[in-house]
C-alpha cells in the first residue's frame, strides 16, 4: 500500500488464455440440429473454444494472470487483492478466487469472486478501481474466466444457448495511474433483477429443496442448464448499451465524438452492430471478436482488450469505453483514457 | 484516507422454523446429545421451501432501511455476500433488488464465504471514498446496502453420511446500510485474507466446472460430492491462529488494545474453536459472542445477524470487534464504535 492515495487507477497490463480446442459451427451441426448459416446469421459466431479434458476457469485464469503480471512487470507478491469474475466457478464454494490465488502463489490476500455474469468483468473492475482510489490496495489482479462447455446442453434441445458460449479467460493488472491524464475515469453499474429469469441457470438453487438433484439434468428445459429468451434479452441489450455508454461519457463531460474505441461484451455480433449503428459510432471503432470465441461472458472484454492492444487499436491517449449487458439483467460501463 | 463510514441501519432475519437436534437425530443416526457434543450447536433455523437468501435479506433490508430512516430509493449500490445464491445465476443481489423494488442501481454479488460481511463492509467503504470528476465524493455511493445471507439447509445431506456436517449449518440473513452520517456504529479499518492452498479442507466441490465433459453427473450425486465436506480437526489450530492474528491487526490499526473491547463477536463453524480464538486474544467469555453457538453457522451472515441482535443493548461508544473465519480458507475482522 502506498503512502499517498492516488486519484485514479489504470489498467497496467492484460493477459488472456483460451483452450486449444476449436469447435466450429460445422462441428456443432454434427451433434445437434443446427447449421453454420443459422448460427452465423443470428450471432456472428463461427467458432468457439471448448476444453477437451479436465480444466477449470482458474486454470485458464492462471495463464492469463501470469501474462498480465509479466506485462505489468510485477511479481504476484505485489498484488494486494485478487478478484475473479465468473458464473462458472471451478467448484461450488469457496470462491474460485481462492483457488486462483493459490495457483499463482499469492499466500495471503483478500480474494473474492464476483458473480455478475456478462457484466462481471466490469463489476470487478469497479471494485478494483474503488480499492485503489480509496488507498485500500495498490495493485489488484482482476480475472474473468469461464468454463461454460461443461454446463451446456449440447443437444438439439439446448441449441439456442449451447451454440453461443465458449470457454476462456482474460486478466488485467490494475494499479495507480501516475500520469493524472490517464486511467479509469469512472465506472457505472446497473441491474434490473425483475428480468432475472430471462437468462438464467436455475439449479443448483438454494431456494429449492433439495437445491440440486439428478433430475435437473433431464426434462424439456433441464434446470441444471442455462435457459434464455433470446429476443427479449436482445431488445433490452440494444437499449441499455447506448444508455450506459452515454452515461459514462456525460459523467465525465465528454461526448460520443471524443470516443476512440468501444469494447462491448461479446454476446452477439448483431447486438453490437445495432448499438454502433443506433449511436452513430463508426464500426471501425468497435472491437468484435465473437466470430472466433463465442460468448465467454466475464472473459469477453479482457480477451477483446488484449487483441485491441496487440493490433494497436488501443494505445496511449485513446479514450476507451468498455461496456456490457447480460444476465441479471446487469449492465455496466467503464470509461478510461489509455 | 477514505472518509469514515457508519452502519446507518442494521436488520436481520432468522427464519421462523427452528430445527432442534432432536429433529435431526433419527435421520442422521445420532443421539441428540451426540449432535450437541460433536458440534456445540443446539438449534439452527431453516428457511421455508421457496425462500432463498434474497427473500431472507429482503426482510432484513426492510428493518435496516427503517432503522436508517431511509427508503430503498436512497440506495446507490447493493452488495450481496453469499455462497448459496437463490439460483446459480443471476446472483442474489439481483433478486434482492427485485424484491425491494430498488432503482436500477448496481447489484454486486460477491463470494467470500464466512468473511463475506467483512468483505462487504470493505467494499462499501471503498466505493464510498470514490471522488466525483468535479471534486467531492461521488454521491452515487453515499448509501450502500450490504447484504449477507445464506440458505445452506437445502444443500445438506439428511442421511447418516451427513452426520458430521449437516447439523452445523443454518439459514439467515442480515443487511447493513453503510454511508456517512451522524449516528450509527462507526466502521474502522477492515482487513481480511484468503489462503487458497487450504481451500479443499472445507468445501462444497460440485457442481465443478473444471470437470470434463459434465460438471456434475449421476455418479457425483451418488458419491455426495455436492454436499459440504471438511477436515475440521486439521483446520482448528489454523482458525484460532488466523482469527487472533487478523483481530490483532485490526486492533493495532484502530489503536485499541484487546482489553479496550466491550464486545468481541467471533464466527466460526465450530463454537469451541471460536471460543479458543477469543481466549487467545485474552477476551473473557462475558465479553464475547459466538453466532454459531446461537443459531448454527450461516457463513457470510453469522457476524451481522449476531451484531444486529445485540446492537440495541450496547451503550454509545462501545468498542466492538467482529472476526470470522471459514472456507477459502478466508478470515477477516472489522472494528466498530457504537
Features:
heterodimer; A: 338 residues; alpha/beta; Peroxisomal Thiolase, Chain A, domain 1; 2 domains; 5-stranded mixed β-sheet; 4-stranded mixed β-sheet; globular; B: 338 residues; 10 helices; 14 strands
Blueprint of the fold:
The complex is a heterodimer of chains A (338) and B (338).
Chain A: E1 9-17, E2 22-24, H1 25-29, H2 36-43, E3 47-49, H3 57-72, E4 81-85, H4 96-104, E5 111-114, H5 120-133, E6 140-146, H6 159-162, E7 168-176, E8 183-191, E9 199-200, E10 227-228, H7 230-251, E11 261-264, H8 269-279, H9 290-293, H10 300-310, E12 319-326, E13 330-337
Parallel strand pairs in A: 4-5, 4-6, 11-12
Antiparallel strand pairs in A: 1-7, 2-3, 6-7, 8-13, 9-10, 12-13
Chain B: E1 6-13, E2 17-20, H1 21-28, H2 32-39, E3 43-46, H3 53-68, E4 77-81, H4 92-100, E5 106-111, H5 116-128, E6 143-150, E7 172-179, E8 186-194, E9 202-203, H6 218-223, E10 229-230, H7 232-254, E11 263-267, H8 271-280, E12 288-289, H9 291-295, H10 302-310, E13 319-326, E14 330-337
Parallel strand pairs in B: 4-5, 4-6, 11-12, 11-13
Antiparallel strand pairs in B: 1-7, 2-3, 6-7, 8-14, 9-10, 13-14
Quick structural overview:
Chain A is α/β, with parallel strands linked by helices. Helix content of chain A is 31%, strand content 22%. In chain A, helix 3 packs across helix 4 (96-104) and helix 7 packs across helix 8 (269-279).
Folded structure, characterized:
The complex is a heterodimer of chains A (338) and B (338). By secondary structure, chain A is α/β, with parallel strands linked by helices. Helix content of chain A is 31%, strand content 22%. Chain A is built from ten helices and 13 strands. The model of chain A has no long low-confidence stretch (mean pLDDT 96). Chain B has 338 residues and is α/β, with parallel strands linked by helices. Chain B has two domains: 6-182, 3-Layer(aba) Sandwich (Peroxisomal Thiolase, Chain A, domain 1), CATH 3.40.47; 189-337, Thiolase/Chalcone synthase (Peroxisomal Thiolase, Chain A, domain 1, 3-Layer(aba) Sandwich), CATH 3.40.47.10. In chain B, the strands form four sheets. Chain B has a five-stranded mixed β-sheet, with helices on both faces. Chain B has a five-stranded mixed β-sheet with strand order 8-14-13-11-12, with helices on both faces. In chain B, strands 2-3 form a two-stranded antiparallel sheet. In chain B, a hairpin with a 3-residue loop joins strand 13 and strand 14 (330-337). The radius of gyration of chain B is 19 Å and the shape is globular. Chain B starts with 5 loop residues before the first strand and ends with a strand. The mean pLDDT of chain B is 97. The interface between A and B is large, with 91 and 84 residues.
